[in-house]
Specification:
By secondary structure, the chain is mainly alpha-helical. It contains 11 helices and no strands. It starts with a helix and ends with a helix.
């Protein structure tokens, strides 16, 4: 066992509070490592890889996570906390339409810049891991609801059949998949992507 592993393993006579704190520090260190791997386009990290990069023992990691799926799920949920802050809108649904479009487009780009690697890892792993697929579905639904709330005054003026189509079009335009496509595949700048979103939202809602 390496010196790092010895440090990472709680001593048997260590107070309970100390063991709990040390366990949480170890878990945080591993989740940070997995986030780094996502940023490096490593979408399917193994527990063995995480142990090697974090300097913790396999024995420790298998105490914290039963399998790679649990490790990925914990990493994604931790990132969701960050994403929640990045996705926050001031006075949602209030103010002139143009200001709300500006705020919404800015926020979705900010969110993509902050959690883009985790989003891509979530999408890659959702196919084979049901819990991650459920988390991805929840996040998508939350983003759709946020769109509806931000533009509720305009949507309320539409007939129901047309309103549903506008909601679906606006949702499609502003989900992270669309932002990722424009930024990474079309190689648009932040300003260019924001202009696409603003133009599309004005056409739908103006």
């Amino acid at each position: 066992m390496s010196d790092i592993d010895e440090i990472a393993e709680p001593a048997e006579d260590e107070p309970v509070d100390g063991r709990v704190a040390r366990r949480q520090r170890n878990i945080d260190a591993v989740l940070d490592v997995v986030l780094e791997m996502f940023a490096e386009e490593s979408m399917f990290p193994t527990i063995e890889q995480a142990a090697t990069r974090s300097g913790l023992s396999l024995r420790s990691l298998y105490r914290y996570f039963a399998d790679p799926g649990e490790l990925l799920e914990a990493t994604i949920k931790r990132s969701d906390q960050v994403g929640g802050e990045l996705a926050r809108l001031h006075a949602i649904g209030q103010g002139p339409l143009e200001d709300r479009i500006e705020d919404f487009a800015t926020m979705r780009l900010r969110l993509h810049d902050g959690v883009g690697p985790v989003f891509r890892a979530t999408a890659a792993n959702a196919v084979r891991l049901p819990r991650i697929r459920e988390e991805m579905t929840k996040n998508r639904n939350d983003m759709r609801e946020q769109f509806e709330l931000q533009f509720a005054p305009e949507l309320a003026e539409l007939k129901s059949s047309h309103r549903d189509a506008v909601i679906s079009a606006g949702d499609l335009l502003t989900q992270l998949e669309s932002v990722d496509f424009l930024r990474r595949h079309r190689q648009l700048t932040v300003a260019e992507t924001k202009k696409v979103h603003a133009t599309g939202l004005r056409a739908l809602l103006g």
